[in-house]
Amino acid sequence: MLIQIALLTLLAIVAVILIIDMIPMWKDWFGRIHIGRMRNTDEWGESITGLAVKWLNHTPTIKLTDQTRLIVIDMLRGNYSRSSIQHWQEAALLLGISEYLKQHEDKGVELAVTKYLEATFDRKGQWREKPKHVDGAILAYAVMKLSFVDTDRYKEALDYIWAMIKEHIGEDGTVEYRKSMKDYRYVDTVGFICPFLITYGLRYQVDACIDLSVKQIQTYEQHGMLPNYGIPCHAYQIDSDVPLGLYGWGRGLGWYAIGLIDAWNELPSGHQYKEELNNCVSRFAHAAIQFQQPSGNWNWTVTRKESITDSSATATLGWFMLQAASIPELTVDCSASAEHAVHYLMRVTRRNGAVDFSQGDTKDIGVYSNQFGILPFTQGFSVRMIQQYNVRKKNGTRGK
């Protein structure tokens, strides 16, 4: 009798473990039924924007591991997922919603953003929980882009970000990804800090911010790009310029793209650095377009057509192309590239408006996720792109 009870208990435990392993697979399978059925860009924009607004204050759980078997062990250890979202993911959602609010008067969305701001900042305009890493800068940039809010009320928080970035400036005069990684420069950092530095520097007349932003971009272009192809490696060693990680990591191209294009966008015409960044934009546009696939996407390894498509790379590079199209010599090619990216993203959007097939979070230099699903970062940049894309389409205009 005791043996039978023990066997039944063991079978029950095994069944529970198997069910827990299967639940994420079932959820993905069910979510992908009738994927890509949006009829036009207006409908798609409305769908993905509504979900982004919902996620701003109620974000989905982000997986920490790529494990798909015996995940109950990671759950028990607290290593399977995180309920809190990273600053760069929050920032993307906020940037997308900000673009939406530029085109629409929507009190409900404004209330959702206000709720988020109240949860993020105290009454003095300081962070309730101060960012410890430089990815906080892209969130600060997203806050500064809100047009319906007097964002100067958060100057204390913005000042903190500038002070924190200065603490991360290394011996070569560029910004470190982490203080514990002083010898490396990551492509991610270009996207994290450069748009904030330009915006903060212009608003509060801090020239050192603008100088640092341009230096970060130019130095990465000088030391972190694949010769003859113009695509970035994941990171490089500052003393030897030895490349680290992968040349052609899709989201790495995306990080460089958004750091460059938003920094360039924030500079006014006639600024001393405008033409320099203009040339950077032109070089990178030509480099990235050659790796866009016929279906409109970029893959997670952009140099391999056999690798899996990555919606996060496609959304960020699509945003870059949409902005770069305002440069006359790039208008035709970049406009076409952005349009192809939009139609790819429509085809990988679930019924509930979630853009699918984004690569999971990177574990380390050269250690990339093999899981592809939903990512708030991708959602935000898809919203950002489609809002401006639809306005330009209706107005028959190109460029800013």
Automatic annotation (TrEMBL):
Signal peptide: none annotated. The keyword GTP-binding does not apply. One of its GO terms (molecular function) is hydrolase activity. It comes from the Bacteria. The chain crosses the membrane at residues 6-26. InterPro entries: 6-hairpin_glycosidase_sf (IPR008928), 6hp_glycosidase-like_sf (IPR012341), Glyco_hydro_88 (IPR010905), PolySaccharide_Degr_Enz (IPR052043). SUPFAM superfamilies: Six-hairpin glycosidases (SSF48208). Keywords: Hydrolase, Membrane, Transmembrane, Transmembrane helix. Pfam families: Glyco_hydro_88 (PF07470). PANTHER family: UNSATURATED RHAMNOGALACTURONAN HYDROLASE (EUROFUNG), WALL GLYCOSYL HYDROLASE YTER, PUTATIVE (AFU_ORTHOLOGUE AFUA_2G14630)-RELATED. This is Glycoside hydrolase family 88 protein. It comes from Paenibacillus mendelii. The lineage of its organism: Bacteria, Bacillati, Bacillota, Bacilli, Bacillales.
